[in-house]
Amino acid sequence: MGLWSQAAAVAAKTPETRNRYVDFLRAVSILAVISGHWLVAAPYVGAEGQLSLPNLLARQPWTQWLTWAFQVMPVFFFVGGYSNGVSWNAAMRDGRGYPSWLDARLQRLIGPVLPLIVVWAVLATVASQMGARPEMIKVGSQLALIPIWFLAVYIMAVLLVPLTYSAWQRYGLLSFGALVFLALANDVLFFAADLPAVGWINYGFIWLAVHQLGYAWRDGQLKGGLKALPWAFGGLAILLGLVFLGPYPLAMVSVPGDEISNTLPPKLPMLALGVTQIGLMLTLEAPMRRWLRRPAPWTATVLVNGMIMTIFLWHLTSSTIIIGGALQMGNVGLTVEPGTGLWWALRPAWIASYLIGLAILALGFSRFERGGAGVAAAAWRLVGGAALVGLGLALLALDGVGGDGWFWLSPWVALPFVGALIAGVNPLRSRS
């Protein structure tokens, strides 16, 4: 049975009560991030014959506006809040405890990332043996592992679901407002008090704030249609004010050369962008839910969601492999200067090649996303192990896998595996 037929069989069993728009937004948000990364990738081999990786956002500043559309991680955290609210409620209703619930979530989140780290650890070791410069290994693995920063933060959000959902039940939208206030205070300390180190705390405040809005949607406190437009217009007004009247840059991702980044660590414009996007998404909810009752779009949504972590985690590895192949074939397509008309005309061909590479990788590695249920470890092991995995992923996203340790690897490579072992996460666990 082909992938489409399998997805169609699953789609046909969808309960009428399921909000299919949640799954659709999850798929669209991940595909948008992937498209954005591939669009701005600008490898270039100049007259001296050396490969460089100029950043298109810095080279053509007008493209920074595109990040307002392609930076949709807020939407993923928003639908994550909705989904976590649904599953946590079901666990409490069915008498399943926190360990059982958390084990199922971690299997799906951590399982797919471990093979990615193994592959890049092997590649780094082989490249070191073949004489590759350490800085090239570091840059290459950093670029390929960019997606894992998100996973590190999202694991934190999942660990805190019992606390954040309890806060939602008790305080409602005030729990969102409190996190907004803390994010604002954090930015004030960052800029006015010149305390850049505190900015990293906003990884919690901002992404958890968006996650709280997912609870609000799930419980009917965020209405769709025209009632959602104030959220969209209000968020946009605040975003424009922060960017054009405040100290924040235009781009919603980090741009080389900019002293301030809206994402590293996240700042108030990311929260305003998220509110804007959420307002727009909810405005379209009713017609989109009707459209998703059709077999074809819903089957496509089910197909993407069935391997969503795999395609997200491996998409930059795919583009790295394709670029490496082009280098080996005499710099095919790499001598066109980024930002020129010809370069833009060739973007569809490059993206198509990346897509083919990703399809092959997804077919090979998506099985690690389908881990089944097992005997859950104790809560302390699950939380401690997951926290160790998150720390390891964050450090690898910052520094890559190369280093001076065993097999020329960074010692941080071991952290996700040690954490997974403690938490009892097994990517080879079969679905029952």
Describe the structure.
- This protein has a domain at 3-11 and 18-166 and 285-423.
- 67% of the residues lie in helices and 1% in strands.
- It has helices spanning 3-12, 20-40, 56-59, 67-70, 73-93, 98-110, 113-129, 134-144, 148-159, 161-171, 173-191, 202-218, 229-245, 268-283, 285-291, 295-305, 308-328, 341-365, 379-399, 414-423; strands at 44-45, 51-52.
- Strands 1-2 form a two-stranded antiparallel sheet.
- A hairpin with a 5-residue loop joins strand 1 (44-45) and strand 2 (51-52).
- The longest helix has 25 residues, at 341-365.
- It is globular, with a radius of gyration of 22 Å.
- The two termini are 19 Å apart.
Low-confidence stretches: none
Q: What is the structural class? A: mainly alpha
Distance between the termini: 19 Å
Helical segment count: 20
- Bin the strand percentage: under 5%
Strand order of the largest sheet: 1-2
Shape: globular
Main beta-sheet strand count, sense and barrel state: 2 strands, antiparallel
Percent helix range: 55-70%
- Kindly state the number of beta strands: 2
Oligomer: single chain
Cα-based radius of gyration, to the nearest Å:
22 Å
The chain-level mean pLDDT equals 90
Query: What is the helix/strand order?
Result: HHEEHHHHHHHHHHHHHHHHHH
Question: Which structural traits does this protein have?
Answer:
globular, 20 helices, 67% helix, 2 strands, single chain
Concise synopsis of the structure shown:
The protein is built from 20 helices and two strands. With 432 residues, the protein is mainly α.
